[in-house]
């Protein structure tokens, strides 16, 4: 069976009628930024199904505009994943008719996905009114981030939980998490360790802090403010993807006969604000409570490469190809600085390479004319997928698979690479 056929098999196997789960067992529900990347791949298999993927997610959007990071499948056991719907209690905010969801968010890559899905089959999208229906939802989503999450008052979005970054247990969160009192491990039951090796997952101590932050947010009715959030961090990945998605919204607006100017102005504003996070050839997170940059080597600091017109782009290329990431040698992008003692090639976001992040950087390099390096990353991803069999993440040095098997966004990214480049 060809690599393309294998990718299609994963996506078909994980389809649940109106959305795609990230992977069997470990991830039995719909995840927010997973669905965006999945839709980008699905558009090559079924543009209609790709549209439905995003429509399903935004069907669970909250009234304040937030897009929850998990939409729970009512057909799955309520206690099959922790924290599940009984923990988040979203019905207390949204009412019992609304879908059960979590209360936190994930990076805003959805408008980019919506535009890419539209371009795959404009005729079907126009006939269904896909952009007309999803555009106001995307505008509302970005509005929530812009107005409710500028907790530092610097024009940048703050995440209020490590899970909101998508990079759950990055070493970048170690310092701000120190101020969070963990819930004792005996007071909750982790379901992830029933499906994955403990050496590849966050520790019980970190998980206890995650649970504390989520419970505090829930108990404050999911209100946003520094008095609620012990963890408030301006994340370069989140803000960069917001800029990229605002650029996509400008394109969507043009297609719909609307003015792209508000979105173009937002791209420029974010591009001007991002240098607040930049130093030493990399972008870093900013601890709002601590009032300082979190110096480190997270791959999140390379993601601004995708922002249109970013002046620091060449510095990021130099850092990516230098000893800290060695992407030109590896063909993959480690999630953390290879030279740092905190680098761990197996444990979640503390070192392994992820296909969605490598895809983003490959896209950024292509947009900037660095085609040779972009081709290197494309080849590295395809080789890693072949070797690991569509695993959740891989050792960046050996491409040995880690985490969940039959991972949807891995398959989606591979399908996109095989079809478009």
Automatic annotation (TrEMBL):
Keywords (A to Z) from UniProt: Glycosidase, Hydrolase
Domain Mannosylglycerate hydrolase MGH1-like glycoside hydrolase residues, every copy: 27-410
Signal peptide location: none
One Pfam family hit: MGH1-like_GH
InterPro entries cross-referenced by the UniProt entry: 6-hairpin_glycosidase_sf, 6hp_glycosidase-like_sf, Glycoside_hydrolase_63, MGH1-like_GH
Record carries keyword Hydrolase: yes
Superkingdom of origin organism: Bacteria
Record SUPFAM superfamilies: Six-hairpin glycosidases
Presence of keyword Ribosomal protein: no
Family classification: Belongs to the glycosyl hydrolase 63 family.
UniProt protein name: Mannosylglycerate hydrolase MGH1-like glycoside hydrolase domain-containing protein
Natural source organism: Saccharopolyspora mangrovi
């Amino acid at each position: 069976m060809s690599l393309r056929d294998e990718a299609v098999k994963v996506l078909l196997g994980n389809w649940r009628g109106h959305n795609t789960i990230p992977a069997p067992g470990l991830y039995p529900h719909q995840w927010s930024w997973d669905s965006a990347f999945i839709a980008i791949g699905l558009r090559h298999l079924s543009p209609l199904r790709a549209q439905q993927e995003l429509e399903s997610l935004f069907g669970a959007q909250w009234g304040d505009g937030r897009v929850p990071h998990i939409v729970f499948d009512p057909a799955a056991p309520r206690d099959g994943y922790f924290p599940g719907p009984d923990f988040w209690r979203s019905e207390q905010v949204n009412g019992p008719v609304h879908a059960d969801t979590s209360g936190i968010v994930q990076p805003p890559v959805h408008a980019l996905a919506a535009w890419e899905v539209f371009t795959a089959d404009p005729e079907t999208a126009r006939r269904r009114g896909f952009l007309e229906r999803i555009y106001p939802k995307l505008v509302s989503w970005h509005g929530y981030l812009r107005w409710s999450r500028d907790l530092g008052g610097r024009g940048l979005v703050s995440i209020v939980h490590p899970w909101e970054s998508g990079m759950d247990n990055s070493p970048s969160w170690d310092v701000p998490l120190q101020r969070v009192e963990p819930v004792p491990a005996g007071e909750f039951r982790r379901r992830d360790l029933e499906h994955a090796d403990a050496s590849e997952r966050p520790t019980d101590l970190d998980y206890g802090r995650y649970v504390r932050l989520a419970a505090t947010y829930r108990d404050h009715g999911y209100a946003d403010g520094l008095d609620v959030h012990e963890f408030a961090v301006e994340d370069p990945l989140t803000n960069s993807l917001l800029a990229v998605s605002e650029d996509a919204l400008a394109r969507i607006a043009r297609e719909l006969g609307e003015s792209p100017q508000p979105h173009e102005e937002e791209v420029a504003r974010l591009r001007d604000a991002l240098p607040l996070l930049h130093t030493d050839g990399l972008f870093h997170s900013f601890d709002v409570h601590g009032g300082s940059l979190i110096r480190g080597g997270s791959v999140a600091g390379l993601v601004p490469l995708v922002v249109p017109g970013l002046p620091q782009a060449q510095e990021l290329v130099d850092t990516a190809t230098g000893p800290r990431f060695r992407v030109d040698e590896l063909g993959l992008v480690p999630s953390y600085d290879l030279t740092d003692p905190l680098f761990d090639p197996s444990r979640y976001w503390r070192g392994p390479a992820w296909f969605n992040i490598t895809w983003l950087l490959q896209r950024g390099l292509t947009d900037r004319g660095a085609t040779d390096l972009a081709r290197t990353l494309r080849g590295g991803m395809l080789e890693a997928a072949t070797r690991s069999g569509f695993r959740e993440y891989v050792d960046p040095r050996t491409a040995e698979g880690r985490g969940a098997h039959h991972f949807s966004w891995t398959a989606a990214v591979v399908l996109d690479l095989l079809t478009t480049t």
